[in-house]
Amino acid sequence: MAEPSVPSTVEQSLAGLSMNDKTTTRVDEEPARTQNAEIASAGTANEQPTFVDVGIAARDLLPGRSKHVQVQDRQVAIFRTHAGALHALDHLCYHMGSPLASGDIEDIGGHACVICPWHKYVIALDTGEGFYKKIDPYAAKGSPPELCSKGVRQRVHHVRVGKGDKLEVALSISKEPLASDHYHQAFAQGMERMKQAGLSVSSGVVVAGGLPGGSRAGS
Ligand code: FES
User: Fold this and answer.
1) pTM of this prediction exceeds 0.85
2) Cβ(118) to ligand 1 under 6 A?
3) Mind listing the pLDDT tens digit for each residue in 28-82?
4) CA-CA distance, 82 to 139, in Å (whole number)?
5) Does 215 map to a domain?
6) Tens digit of pLDDT for each residue in 161-201?
7) Looking at the domain assignment, is residue 96 inside a domain?
8) Of 66, 114, 115, 188, which sits 20 to 30 A from 105 (CA to CA)?
9) What is the count of structural domains for the chain?
10) Where is this chain compositionally biased, Basic and acidic residues type (predicted)?
11) Looking at residue 152, which CATH number applies to its domain?
12) Is the CB of residue 154 below 6 angstroms from any atom belonging to ligand 1?
């Protein structure tokens, strides 16, 4: 698949998306789905997400910064917004798998978002929705573009500050498939193939919560 051209600004990216996307809603039309809602709707204790210490002190994640961690076999990016809120999403972008922890955090229409470092897609940190701005060519001159949602594309996980000021992450337990699952699976399969070939399988980050199958790397 040919790689799309790289827009030079976020606004160009947002405007360009509006020409192609047909399955969108205005942001104020779609209720936000939050990670807390998943926890609240879980039934028994067995269905609750399980938090694990990811080895990072909460005080070391400053506002406007992010960290890449691995929880079991999943690559996760933890963000702290400029206002201080914590969010966790799949680390690999739903579009083409870029590392979202390298993206800037910006306020887009009142929503804290990460700007993908490769093609500048805009992803809401609290819901994982892909955002774009729709420009109406028939609107009055000077009218601001309309912020729209493509729906949830990036999987959102749970993050909290645990004992001893340590950040804890719980993977989402939702079975609903999302676009970002593709790059999680591709990355995990690539790591598994390297392991079977006897090559190093380190992703460069500490593994928290143990790998599926029982082994555990790092602390
Ligand atoms: S990889 Fe293309 S926008 Fe993220």
Assistant:
1) no
2) yes
3) 544 444 455 665 555 555 578 899 999 999 999 999 999 999 999 999 999 999 9
4) 33
5) no
6) 999 999 999 999 999 999 999 999 999 999 889 888 888 76
7) yes
8) 188
9) 1
10) 23-32
11) 2.102.10.10
12) no
